[in-house]
Prior knowledge:
CATH architecture of the largest domain: 3-Layer(aba) Sandwich
Helix content: 10-25%
Number of strands: 17
CATH class of the largest domain: Alpha Beta
Structural class: alpha+beta
CATH topology of the largest domain: Lysozyme-like
Number of domains: 2
Largest sheet: 10 strands, antiparallel
Radius of gyration: 21 Å
Order of helices and strands: HEEEEEEEEEEHEHEEEHEEEHH
Amino acid sequence: MITVMPSLxxxxxxxxxxxxxxxxxxxLAAPTLAVTTAPPASAAPVRAEPPVQRLDPAGAGLRAADxxxxxxxxxxxxxxxxxxxxxxxxxxxxxxxVRVRTRADDGWSPWRDLERIGDGPDRRTRERSARVAATDxxxxxxxxxxxxxxxxxxxxxxxxxxxxxxxxxxxxxxxALARDTRNPWSPKPTMRGREQWGADPALRSGAARYNSTIxxxxxxxxxxxxxxxxxxxxxxxxxxxxxHTQNLGWSDIGYNFLVxxxxxxxxxxxxxxxxxxxxxxxxxxxxxxxxxxVIGSFEDARPRRxxxxxxxxxxxxxxxxxxxxxxxxxxxxSYGSDRYPEGARPRLPTIDGHRDxxxxxxxxxxxxxELPTIRRRAAARIARW
Length: 385
């Protein structure tokens, strides 16, 4: 419900003076996120703002705002900070370049491009919605205003998604599972479950579905900042979960697993990490694979050694029980992507990058360059067991 709160309508000058009191998004405790929209920024100060919107919490440990951006409006201010930004619109088949800049207490950031999201459910599944186009959800740190720029024809239903994790820490120390000596498989790596990052079951829709086999591991990056703190990760995962389910209409978070920059592995999609859960991570190639996303952006930054090691352990564990060769290639059937039409059977690396199946830069040039090492080390790990 939208409620007008005159006490929150201030002049641009008074809002600027209040920026020094902004607290980090991780420490927010207010139950709602108040949002104001302003006309495009100009040299003259803005003397008045439209009414304030009050929005309800958006699942466990989150507040969120879905703000329409009609033509002529591109600046949104918030009464309390946010940390994640995405943009959605009705999918009319038109490619659009979207960029944003955000404001913190030290001023406006440079413009950053938001790549159109290339993840998603396969088109044959009930989960797939062809009506929604979106950018990746970007982690921007603490900010209280954002500007959006769209190149080309601007969609009438352009919507800005702002998410503010509240910093609730539900994660506990994981319990490392001992290797089952009754089977010859590579051991299960230490990982944190959904309950440890606070996945709200109310945001899911439908039961988990399963593949008949696993032929591949697809490696992604989430295009977030590489400077998040350890305690940011549970809220960051909750934000991705909310975006995938409530804004994109997917049944659950798209990735089967996620690895943070500290080398910790997190269970993403529900259904059981040991099982071949059908994900929504690699459009056209979900039905015979598992998908793992590294939280960060690796086009220019090299992943840490502990991140590479986490990908090695996870890949070996998932592929060994299906007798897949990490350094090999497999023929897989496409269910339709922007690189391979439905019915195509490309021969792809068993461990590949998202760019091998879709027209995307994911998982970034620097992480993609690590894939030969990951394949070699995963094969060696399997050989040891």
